[in-house]
What does this fold into?
Amino acid sequence: MLNFITWTTDPILLEIGSFQLRWYSLMFLFGFLGGYKIVEKIFKHEGAPESWLGSLLVWVMLGTIIGARLGHVFFYEWDQYSQNPIEIFKVWEGGLASHGGTIAIMLGMWWFVRKYGRRYDFGYIWLLDRLAVATAFAAMFIRLGNLMNSEIYGHQTSLPWGFIFLQNGETVAKHPTQLYEALAYLCTGIILWCIYKYALPKIKEGLLLGIFFIGIFLSRFFIEFVKENQVGFEEGMALNMGQLLSIPFVLLG
It folds into this structure.
């Protein structure tokens, strides 16, 4: 008889009165802080101005949260939110799409470069290359947050590392797809960091960003085959929404 992993972790780490500190929020914070330290190290290494690191962090955070929320609204549940738009602002109730966050960050960085790029002589792709290294590691933390929330896991499995998510009332083992993605993102981040550290003078601009898109979204594409669909309309689709949204990023990479 297989000994599956019984997952009973409470998504709430700390509760004081009406205040709740959730593991997911903490993982988000770790992702942003870790990404900030990586970019700070990169800027120091290249002599880039560190004075606007704070502004960069704010814009990346806003792009991530607002873009991911709107991505979920428009890509997954527009029928529901269009009937009650005020629900869009209730981010704490869940519903974020990484594809939307990626698009918003790219748009936000385009504005950021227009404002600061001429003054400090750096370009759009130069900035995205360096953010890609940090973002891969941040994405890993976010997927670990999904694990702590017992959400977006996979189909039933007989593999010994299957998780029984008791918090969701599951009684059979499911693929821990959050861990699959977290591992894929970690590997992508390590590859990007090694290329940046040891081969930067030899590579062309845009290579790091291209590897990021392929590493993150191609792994997402394949992992979706063993992941449960997020919304009802995906049932019966040959490729689900996560896969369809990943294809343009892979091709762009």
